[in-house]
Write a structure and sequence with these properties.
This protein is mainly alpha-helical. Helix content is about 55%, strand content about 10%. The chain has 5 helices and 2 strands, in the order βαααααβ. Strands 1-2 form a two-stranded antiparallel ribbon. The longest helix is centred in the last third of the chain and has 11 residues.
Length: about 70
């Protein structure tokens, strides 16, 4: 998938657990896992905003576009 979710990096920087993050954002830990593992098909802007607020970061810190080798 060309969009990589970097929630785990931001959580590690802050020494925050998935459970704590999920609670503060208003998601279930299972839904955070879906996002972290790149299985999510979409993210609501309100959810992205909440994640950025909790982590004190920008959307670009959480999401990265990576070009697939097949597309070059």
């Amino acid at each position: 998938m060309p969009i990589v979710v970097r929630i785990d990096v931001e959580l590690a920087k802050r020494k925050m657990s998935v459970g704590e993050f999920a609670e503060k954002v208003g998601l279930t830990p299972a839904n955070v896992a879906v996002l972290k593992n790149g299985r999510a098909k979409a993210v609501r802007f309100s959810t992205l905003e909440a994640m950025c607020r909790v982590l004190g970061c920008q959307p670009g810190d959480l999401l990265e576009w990576v070009e697939l080798e097949d597309e070059v």
